[in-house]
Amino acid sequence: MSTSAPIVPSPLVEAATPSFSPLYQQIKSLILQSLQAGEWKPGEPIPSEMDLAARFRVSQGTVRKAIDELAAENLVIRRQGKGTFVATHAEQNVQYRFLKLVPDSGDTQTEGPAERTIVDCKRLRAASDVARALALRTGDAVLQVRRVLAYAGVPTILEDLWLPGTPFKGLTAERLREWRGPMYAMFETEFGVRMVRAQEQIRAVLPDASQAALLSVSVATPLLSVERIAHTYNDAPMELRRGLYRTDTHHYRNALG
Amino acid sequence: MSTSAPIVPSPLVEAATPSFSPLYQQIKSLILQSLQAGEWKPGEPIPSEMDLAARFRVSQGTVRKAIDELAAENLVIRRQGKGTFVATHAEQNVQYRFLKLVPDSGDTQTEGPAERTIVDCKRLRAASDVARALALRTGDAVLQVRRVLAYAGVPTILEDLWLPGTPFKGLTAERLREWRGPMYAMFETEFGVRMVRAQEQIRAVLPDASQAALLSVSVATPLLSVERIAHTYNDAPMELRRGLYRTDTHHYRNALG
DNA sequence: CAGTGGTCTAGACCACTGG
DNA sequence: CAGTGGTCTAGACCACTGC
């Protein structure tokens, strides 16, 4: 079969992606579009490599390379003998994948999940910095949530987070309190929003009086300030999160490769 | 050609890696051994895929998959039309790849390289914590270096670092001061030690009096404490580094994927 | 057992680099 | 132009899963 002509009788690929790029990249972005459109939900299997190869009229190897990249970006999980599945934050394995604060002991297992307290959850208009971070306009409706996470009874994390009002319509403090499991898993199943990438800016700061009170520390205790912007598919920002971490019994762990 | 029998007439692979694993993994670890042994130096090209395929008696595709993984781990860099090269910290492109502190403006370009001051460089016996981090015994010889990095005249980073005495024999404050370019590049060319991976533990702390003086801040200024352990090939720890970062004009940036 | 992803091969052609 | 890595194919067989 010829290679130079990108597929023989099928406009499936060429139509969707006019400008040239390798076939497997085109396939990748087509799969990405399906993921984004919700054709397959988090946790569900996507079609087999053979099926996708038939659908796109390419060889299995080309589909394979496309899926390889999606798997490398944690958008999809391969399971030999079973299939390829849409990644989810509900996965036992990769729960709290974005939380880099670990106990100094390293035993993230024995510590168990945090005790969560929703301090506040209200609807308000976005200030300019929040709007900028979420790619909204100043004054647009946003949800603001404040919560505290405690480990072994010790309040360790204080988080303020802002969500765009439209996709998260209906989110309340009660629904947050009722939910068992990672917040990002809730966003997936309740609002169809999957966080796939994020970036954090970390600083050392001193808390103000109210922050210090919520974390049971003095205002002279240095804390880690972690500002995160989380993105969905296509890199649209969907969450701004400002965290204050106590680092007397925990530390932020980062791997450099 | 048969697939199940890992290679036909060649003991090259089986001999080196007795326990079973995919062929491309065996090839990968063989290449890794050559990198580790210094068969090809940082910046130099490794043999072409065809050459390696011939050497190991496997197909080009199998070598390709092995190199793909090495490239994904930043051990090697592929350049279309030119070859595959041993990665180096001297590379203009990926210089200071392990330094995550960036100016708040984001303009890491306009800021330029830091002004470096070697405060101290002495040979001493490893304390127990340093020994443990470097996989040495307490009392073994280590080098301790203290330096300050300043941006636009503002001292921003204070680093203490410990290196095992044996591989870094002959390292002096003078040689450090003379060197132009990243310290890790110097380790490569002068001592044959290439840092390939590292992990960092980050905390918020207050400086003691001497630290505060070196950074021109008060002892009440919260700072980022960054403890790094850097590893060579085969994950042998080769450096312990304790940094204090000012985060009034800079921040630690981290990407979560 | 059939179906899935995982490995391996052989061969073709493309895109880029340098002499 | 020859040599490099990059893409694509077709087909074989392996390893694992679940019925």
List keywords for this structure.
homodimer; 257 residues; alpha+beta; Arc Repressor Mutant, subunit A; Chorismate lyase; 2 domains; 6-stranded antiparallel sheet; 11 strands; disordered N terminus; DNA-binding
What percent strand of chain A? 25-35%
By secondary-structure content and strand pairing, the structural class of chain A works out as: alpha+beta
Tell me the strand order in the biggest sheet of chain A. Answer: 5-6-7-10-9-8
Gap between N and C termini of chain A, in Å?
A: 40 Å
SSE order of chain A, as H and E? HHEHHEEEHEHEEHHEHEEE
Oligomer: homodimer
Percent helix range of chain A = 25-40%
Kindly identify the CATH topology of the largest domain in chain A.
Chorismate lyase
Question: Main β-sheet of chain A, in a few words?
Answer: 6 strands, antiparallel
Biggest interface reads:
A-B, 31 and 31 residues
**What is the overall number of helices of chain A?**
9
For the record, the count of structural domains of chain A works out to 2
What value does the average pLDDT of chain A take?
92
* Uncertain stretches of 5 or more adjacent residues of chain A: 1-18
- The CATH class of the largest domain in chain A, by name, is Alpha Beta
Q: CATH superfamily of the largest domain in chain A, called what? A: Chorismate lyase-like
Shape label of chain A: globular
- The name of the CATH architecture of the largest domain in chain A is 3-Layer(aba) Sandwich
> What is the number of beta strands of chain A?
11
Radius of gyration of chain A using CA atoms only: 21 Å
